[in-house]
Amino acid sequence: MAVLSVISIPALLVSLAVAFVLVHAIQYIRFRTKAARLGCKPAVAGFNGDMAGLSLMRMGLKAQREKNVPNWMRQEFARLSAREGRPVGTFAMSAPLFRRALFTAEPENIKTILATSFKDFSLGKNRTGNFKPLLGDGIFASDGKKWEHSRAMLRPQFVRSQVSDISLEETHVQNLMAVLEGQLDSTTGWSSAVDLSPLFFRLTLDSATEFLFGESVNSQLRREGDATTSAAAFATSFDASQNQLAVAGRYGSNYWIGHTKEFHKDVRICHEFIDYFVQKAMNGQRSVGEKEGERYVFLEAIAKETSDPVELRSQLINILLAGRDTTASTLGWFFYTLGQARHRHLYKRLRDAVLDEFGTYRDPKPITFEGLKNLTYLQWCVNETLRLYPIVPMNGRSAVKDTVLPVGGGPDGRSPILVRKGQDVGYSVHVMHHRTDLWGADADDFRPERWEKRKPGWDYLPFNGGPRICIGQQFALTEIAYIVVRMLQRFDELDGSALPLESHGLGLTNCPGEGVPLRLHFAE
Question: Is pLDDT larger for residue 318 or for residue 233?
């Protein structure tokens, strides 16, 4: 029996290996047969590197350290386009340490993923698993029935009456102005060089927490470097945990490597801070609409829909992430761009339009939702900022069944591609927004006038598209426009001589990597 056991173990291992190879061979043949029947052809292979995929992981982490991830992806598409002698909008990647994946920047493919074949794709286990410690089962980290429940609960909170109420913003704008006025040299009318990026993040944190919780954390009123309060600790941990999720995401299915002890500490601080407000709402200390003229509070409204404190916390932290970071990042890129000397004439044109419509800083006319939407050149400038610097430059889905992308396969890139069940498909809005075959030879240039005759389609997706389109899109655009108007009323000139070269601080959203240091000239 001992001899038989010795003989049978190697034989069993060989049999298992043969069975494994046979199963995969049969699956491969079936897949190729199905692809041929549907007229599908494979995409070109991208990302040179070792067979294991370790070099790809190193390249991704290097790009993260160098704050260049969005442009690293652009460079790969450009390299493949030069190699193939045609614009490459989709490529394939396969390595043992990574799941077989496709990457696309084709409008038709992205439309298929997000809308036409929406039910054929999910967020995938990598994303939901990576996001779960911080975001729980919130709307940006859930699929299927959980996502449908979240959207049904949250979408009514972004109706026109809530989005168009911009009255709470002014208090926080005034706090920002107080900080900037502290940098004023009264003899010249200029401020010292001040980094606007962290100031915008504090401003939007303050306004977002007031909208969501009913009271602001007032981070702008705290001294520089003061992290002793729970609000300041929350802001620090919120940023740190997001950045670590982005790092963990570079590991693909090995995302757990990035869930460090420090990361879990930051998550705990974030959760404890939000739980304080959740308990206040659940204790009924104030009810929505009980007193005439009382302000709307997001948390109190959704607390009427669920009594689960964990669900309330998860939804709040998801909406806070989107509401705070989207606005702050876009504002950062807006002033990074218009602060450059080559765009001085654009700043003047926009400022003239703002003053004509809304008056001066000291003597303003009413700033309304309708007025902001109708100020055409302002809308063009915001659109162009979001085109060049989309807040989520890369995203992805995982196929829940065999499905088809309409283009990207074959030698000419025009054939459909069969996507295998379980296969990941990444898509880059950043790459798509910079494609010269879609946007012209000046695709890398900030030219607001391009929007005069152009209507947004599937080649322009700053807020995603399809059923998962951002429910807070109008809220974010309104807040961005309001803050821009007040800034342009206050400052008649920008000096961007201290601006660094473009880099991308890519956490879960994309902000200027080295800040936005500008000198500001105060208008009379």
Answer: 318
Q: Output b/e per residue, 129-151; b: 16+ Cβ within 10 A.
A: bbbebbbbbbbbbbbeebbebbe
Residue 196: CA atoms inside 13 Å, Cβ hemisphere, count? Answer: 31
Q: How confident is the model at residue 225 (pLDDT cuts 50, 70, 90)?
A: very low
Query: Domain 37-522 class?
Result: mainly alpha
Extract the annotated binding site.
470
| Residue 462 exposed, middle or buried by CB count within 10 Å (0-12, 13-18, 19+) | buried
Reply yes or no on whether the pLDDT at 321 is more than 60: yes
Crossing angle, helix 309-338 and helix 144-154, to 10 degrees? 70
Query: Any bridge partners for residue 405, and if so which?
Result: 417
Amino acid at 303: A
d(CA 243, CA 238): 9
Task: Please check whether residue 347 is in contact with residue 338, taking contact to mean a CB–CB distance below 8 angstroms.
Answer: yes
Which residues fall within 8 angstroms of residue 338, CB to CB, at 6 or more apart? Answer: 346, 347, 350, 381, 494
User: Which residue from 511, 250, 239, 244 is spatially nearest to 392, judged by alpha carbons?
Assistant: 511
- pLDDT at res. 161: 62
Sign of the dihedral through C-alpha 65, 70, 73, 75: negative
Contact yes or no for 105/89 (Cβ under 8 A): yes
Let me know: does 426 contact 392? Beta carbons within 8 Å: no
Q: Angle CA(95)–CA(99)–CA(105) in degrees, nearest 5? A: 95
Both tokens of residue 410? Answer: 């074959």
Three-class SS state of 294: coil
Compute the radius of gyration of the chain from its Cα atoms.
25
Question: What is the distance between the alpha carbons of residues 103 and 189, in angstroms, rounded to a whole number?
Answer: 50
Which own/partner pairs from 497-502 qualify as long-range (CB within 8 Å, at least 24 positions apart)?
497/341, 498/193, 499/336, 499/339, 499/340, 502/336
**pLDDT tens column, 248-294:** 987 878 899 999 999 999 999 999 999 999 998 888 755 444 454 56
Has residue 377 got a pLDDT over 80?
A: yes
Structure tokens at 470: 């951002």
pLDDT tens figures, 164-194: 678 889 999 999 999 999 999 999 999 999 9
Tokens of 207: 């306004």
> Where along the chain do its domains lie?
37-522
pLDDT at residue 289 in the model: 46
Helices 169-181 and 473-490: crossing angle in degrees, nearest 10, is 40
Tokens of 414: 């025009």
Count of Cβ atoms closer than 10 Å to residue 41 Cβ? 18
pTM for this predicted structure: 0.90
Helix runs in 155-305, H state only: 160-163, 169-181, 196-213, 230-249, 261-282, 298-302
Q: Which residues are annotated as a binding site for heme?
A: 470
Give the pair of three-digit tokens for residue 205. 């944190």
Which residues make Cβ contacts (< 8 Å) with residue 316, sequence separation at least 6?
A: 212, 213, 274, 277, 278, 298, 299
